[in-house]
Design brief:
The chain is an alpha/beta fold and about 230 residues long. The chain has helices at about 20-30, 50-55, 70-80, 100-110, 125-145, 175-180, 210-225, and strands spanning about 10-15, 35-45, 60-65, 85-90, 115-120, 155-160, 185-190. About 35% of the residues lie in helices and about 15% in strands. The chain is globular, with a radius of gyration of 17 Å. Bound molecules: uridine-5'-diphosphate and magnesium ion.
């Protein structure tokens, strides 16, 4: 059955999040009650029961990758499957709080094109907090995205902003840079952050720092050649 076009699509990448997905879905439905929304889950080739544990409801879309393709691929696919006028992005491990989504939407109503959450009180290990702080500092200066915490997935954007996104491994760290580069207005707000209580983080120092640094150079070139247009 084709559902009417939702006002909001919430896109969530999931990789081996079987013990988070049920509670996440409950929290989403209660945080978004009264809104016209769909949830787009992208199962990024999970090897556990993540996909089976997604409750299939008319307001839920589940994309299932054949095999693990990475968080950027999952988010890109979900963003392009989304039908809502506004697209919200959220991690699937319950570290982001669905209750923050209405706060992001309020900023869009006030005129922002992309709203980025920043984690005022991080609930991660010391190593992760320090590496993330360094990465955010370097990246925001290098790409001039003007955002203090791109590592925070929790964001909302008008659907047209997705035209700025280019699919490459690592893209999810440069969404503000790419969207801002196309001339869109970005706003930041503090959001809640919670410790991961089930499943494991998919990133460590080794698989994040070097790749993200190389990507920065690529993004800087891309920004220097990015097409800029707005439809009247
Ligand atoms: N994720 C994904 N594919 C991957 C790695 C991660 O879809 O290859 C998802 C993961 O399930 C989670 C989000 O991306 O919903 C962020 O991952 P994680 O929590 O491991 O990152 P961290 O919070 O440790 O930076
Ligand atoms: Mg996490």
């Amino acid at each position: 059955m084709t559902q009417p076009t939702p006002a909001l699509s919430v896109v969530i990448p999931l990789y081996n999040e079987q013990d988070n997905v049920e509670s996440l879905q409950k929290q989403l439905h209660s945080a978004l009650s009264g809104l016209n929304y769909e949830i787009v889950f992208v199962d990024d080739g999970s090897k556990d029961a993540t996909a089976q544990r997604v409750e299939k409801r008319p307001d839920v879309v589940l994309l299932e990758f054949e095999k693990n393709a990475g968080q950027s691929a999952a988010m890109y696919a979900g963003i392009h499957a989304a039908r809502g006028e506004v697209i919200a992005l959220l991690d699937g491990d319950l570290q982001n709080d669905p209750a923050d989504i209405p706060l992001l939407l309020a900023e869009i109503d006030k005129g922002a094109d992309l709203v980025c959450g920043y984690r005022a009180k991080r609930k991660d290990t010391v190593v992760k907090r320090i590496t993330s702080r360094v990465a955010n500092f370097v990246r925001s200066r290098f790409t001039k995205d003007g955002v203090r915490d791109t590592g925070c997935t929790l964001k909302a954007m008008r659907r047209e902003c997705r035209a700025a996104l280019v699919p490459f491994y690592g893209m999810h760290r440069f969404i503000p840079a790419l969207v801002k580069g196309m001339g869109y207005k970005i706003v930041e707000i503090p959001v809640n952050h919670r410790p991961r209580t089930a499943g494991v983080s998919k990133y460590g120092l080794g698989n994040r720092a070097i790749k993200a640094t190389v990507d920065m150079f690529g993004v800087r070139w891309l920004l220097s050649r990015q097409v800029k247009y707005k439809v009247k």
